[in-house]
Amino acid sequence: MSLLEKLTLEDLDEEQRQLAECIGLEAYKNLLRNYAGSPITVRMPKRITIPVRDKEICDKFNGYNYGDLAREYDLSEVSIRRIVSAEIPRIKAAPLPGQTSFFDDDTEI
């Protein structure tokens, strides 16, 4: 049995104990095994969730609601336009509500 496996919360200083209590002692030991002595960065939640936010914005985008999305997500309209830029061709190609397409007919030729 290694010394790390024998480690308990009581063996840690206050700062390290708080970290171990936050993530759990086993996860803390795993962190030590993999990253001990290395500088690691724990990103801010707002920064790490940007891809989730951007997907949500794209899902809500209807082709016209730049301002609404900008206000909802506290971003500029320019930022919203950048985020949804890949969605614009798909939105423009979609039929309007109630509009039919020549290609929607299930009739076989």
Total count of strands? 0
Strand-pairing-aware structural class:
mainly alpha
- How far apart the termini lie comes to 74 Å
Question: Runs with pLDDT <50, length 5+?
Answer: none
The helix/strand series, from N terminus to C terminus, equals: HHHHHHHH
**Count of separate structural domains:** 2
Radius of gyration: 25 Å
Let me know the average pLDDT. Answer: 90
Portion of residues in helices?
55-70%
Largest sheet at a glance? none
Morphology: elongated
Oligomer: single chain
Report the total helices.
Answer: 8
- Taken as a percent bin, the fraction of beta residues is under 5%
Care to describe what's here?
The protein has 109 residues and is mainly alpha-helical. The protein is built from eight helices and no strands. It folds into two domains: 33 residues, no CATH class; 49 residues. Helix 6 crosses helix 7. The chain is elongated.
Label this structure with key terms.
57% helix; mainly alpha; 8 helices; 0% strand
Would you summarize the structure shown here?
The protein has 109 residues and is mainly α. Helices cover 57% and strands 0% of the residues. The chain folds into two domains: 3-35, no CATH class; 45-93.
